[in-house]
Design brief:
Helix content is 38%, strand content 18%. The protein has 215 residues and is of the alpha/beta class. The protein has a five-stranded parallel sheet with strand order 2-1-3-6-7, sandwiched between helices. Helix 1 links the parallel strand 1 and strand 2. Helix 1 packs parallel to helix 7. The longest helix is centred in the C-terminal third of the chain and has 24 residues. The radius of gyration is 18 Å and the shape is globular.
Length: 215
């Protein structure tokens, strides 16, 4: 492994999702100490939402053949960051049951017909090579397990959209009920998530996936 794409989405400088994503990157560097880090922090530096020229360029096959000047530059840069990475780490809070808008803005730039996926009668087929994606989630409520008291639209959404471009080897880690965690309970919740990270990082990076997205 030579390169890691590390993305954070929390608006808070000190957050559970940031601590989890940093821990995952640390574990990856233990496996591959020479790996470089490509950093995207959408908290202090959010991406712009889709601009008119970008939307116009994607609106038809004709404009895709001759895109408006500069309209795809940001999208292309973000896609190339994914292509260059051997592993991707995403730290994100759950906002109102799903992904925060800053992560959605990134998704809207990397899902591009003809570039990262092709449309077929059966649906989208990814064109990117698969690689491990580690997703660290922090949620104020409980969305998984026996104590779940709210829906989860985040994990199935990310699995679907990332899978549609070819990224299918996803591992989710979470610290839940952060609105009620303090002191030792917060430390215990993070430790539980980190214990799972040790196992999955070794399985997915030491023995990387061999499945490739279609080209």
């Amino acid at each position: 492994m030579k390169s890691i794409l590390h993305i954070d989405c929390s608006p808070r400088a000190e957050s559970h999702s940031r601590q989890l994503s940093a821990a995952i990157v640390e574990k990856l560097l233990e496996v591959a100490p020479g790996a470089s880090i490509c950093r995207r922090d959408f908290g202090p530096a959010p991406l712009p939402h889709a601009a008119p020229d970008y939307a116009t360029t994607l609106s038809s096959a004709a404009t895709l053949a001759a895109p408006l000047k500069g309209s795809l530059d940001l999208s292309e840069m973000l896609i190339q960051e994914i292509e260059a990475a051997d592993a991707i780490v995403i730290g994100t809070p759950m906002h109102n049951l799903t992904v925060p808008s800053v992560l959605k803005a990134w998704i809207d730039q990397i899902l591009r017909a003809g570039r990262t996926f092709k449309s077929t009668p059966a649906g989208k087929v990814g064109k990117l090579h698969d690689r491990p994606v580690f997703i660290a989630i922090a949620s104020g409520g409980v969305f998984a397990g026996d104590r779940a008291n709210q829906p989860d639209f985040l994990t199935p959404y990310l699995a679907t959209v990332l899978g549609s471009i070819g990224l299918k080897t996803l591992q989710f880690f979470s610290v839940q009920a952060t609105a009620f965690l303090e002191g030792d309970s917060a430390t215990s919740a993070r430790a539980k998530a980190l214990a799972a990270i040790d196992l999955t990082v070794m399985r997915n990076v030491a023995c990387p996936a061999t499945v490739e997205g279609e080209r």
